[in-house]
């Protein structure tokens, strides 16, 4: 016997405009734990849901700067401190020949940080999500637009929230339970 908890309410809308209007209306009513599932990107949905800009760009910038500084420091330390070779009056460290390795280390660390950050910020890998069990959820990969209000939202009510979503133009609004 499995015990289920309530995950939230899922409302299906016919057009992206209806979805945007409903998301804005729910946000104005004070709902904050919402998500939208659409078959293609919908312009303005992030603002309507109150989703902030991702910190991923800053993470990539910091990692790229660390890769750049680390590569330059390593090349300077090996050439000028650890194993100095004075050959033909050349300097122990020159910036120009260090550019390719510095560029590669910058790109490598930024790429690793971007992938790791994307996985962490998206909560991946996640092999199961309660919405996968919703009977009509597969349509969001084709022609439906879904607004999800999570039960963790302080304004969520098991009977009033689906009714409110229907009043905002949802073709269908149902409760979704978490699996075991």
Strand order of the largest sheet: 2-3-1-4
Order of helices and strands: EHEHHHEHE
Radius of gyration: 25 Å
Distance between termini? Answer: 9 Å
Portion in strands: 5-15%
Number of domains: 2
Can you tell me the overall shape? Answer: elongated
The overall strand count is 4
Please, what is the oligomeric state? single chain
Sheet with the most strands?
Answer: 4 strands, antiparallel
Give the count of helical stretches.
Answer: 5
Mean pLDDT: 93
Query: Which spans have pLDDT < 50 for at least 5 consecutive residues?
Result: none
Based on secondary structure, the structural category is alpha+beta
Helical content stands at: 40-55%
What's the gist of this structure?
With 180 residues, this protein is of the alpha+beta class. The chain has helices at residues 16-28, 45-49, 56-82, 99-121, 160-167, and strands at 5-13, 34-37, 145-150, 172-178. The longest helix has 27 residues, at 56-82.
